[in-house]
Amino acid sequence: MSRLFILLTVLIALVARADAPASQPALAKLVGQPMKIAGTTYDGKEFSTEQLKGKVVLIDFWATWCGPCVEELPHVKKVYERYHEKGFEIVGISNDYKLDALKKFLAAHPEYPWTQLFDPKAAKEQEWHAVTSRYGIDALPQMFLIDKQGVCRSVNGAADMDQMVPKLLAE
Q1: pLDDT at 22 > cutoff 60
Q2: What CATH superfamily is the domain 3-170?
Q3: DSSP E strand boundaries for the chain
Q4: Strand pairing class (142-146; 152-154)
Q5: How far apart are CA 14 and CA 77, in angstroms?
Q6: Which pLDDT score is estimated for 30?
Q7: 92: buried, middle or exposed (CB in 10 Å: 19+, 13-18, 0-12)?
Q8: Beta strands 38-40 and 46-48: pairing type?
């Protein structure tokens, strides 16, 4: 087989895996557990989801270089626009290796105004954000839904958000 064929096969498998629901047992065990996400925003401010208690939160593990991640953003934006005034928030966990790439993307896309966490130490080492690694996430995008009490309710937020966000807001 040619190298190009092997490379294409690997890329197709990675994209298919990124679109598949979370199947890792470790992720499934998070559902029903309290979840606190903390870190530094891309502009250097400390952040914690504890600041968002009383709101429904989508945690979006993504990167600007991840095609499926960027393709999902318009849908995420629609859900944000529909429910933000009712108490829905989004926190992006950027797995970019270069802060400049994230800043340029966000400057070009002001329609994505939600909080973005960035880990400069991990980026320097060409690793994903420490929060991403802590949860054992090995494919992007990955999205979690956290309820008003700070409990993880879904590790398949991309598939579940349309139905779950209004239900969680009504609780």
Answers
A1: no
A2: Glutaredoxin (3.40.30.10)
A3: 38-40, 46-48, 56-62, 88-94, 115-117, 142-146, 152-154
A4: antiparallel
A5: 24
A6: 84
A7: buried
A8: antiparallel
Q: What distance in Å separates the CA atoms of residue 53 and residue 41, rounded to the nearest whole number?
A: 18
The tokens 């690997």 sit on which residue? 10
Q: Which of 107, 112, 55 is nearest to 78 (CA)?
A: 112
Distance from C-alpha of 147 to C-alpha of 5, rounded to nearest angstrom: 44
Q: How far apart are CA 155 and CA 33, in angstroms?
A: 11
Q: Which residue has the tokens 């626009």?
A: 81
Question: Mean of the pLDDT values across residues 14-28?
Answer: 52
- b/e per residue, 8-44, with b = 16+ CB within 10 A? eeeeeeeeeebeeebeeeebeebbeeebebebeebee
User: Phi and psi at residue 62, in whole multiples of 5°?
Assistant: -155, 180
C-alpha to C-alpha distance for 155 and 126, rounded to whole angstroms: 25
Secondary structure element (H or E) that encloses residue 100, with its range: helix 99-108
> In this predicted model, what pLDDT tens digit does every residue of 38-92 receive, in sequence order?
999 999 999 999 999 999 999 999 999 999 999 999 999 999 999 999 999 999 9
Q: Measured over all CA atoms, what is the biggest interatomic distance in the chain, rounded to whole angstroms? A: 55
Specify the DSSP class assigned to residue 129.
Answer: -
Amino acid (one-letter) located at 85 = E
Could you tell me if residue 136 is left (phi over 0), alpha (psi between -120 and 50 degrees) or otherwise beta?
left
Model-level pTM? Answer: 0.84
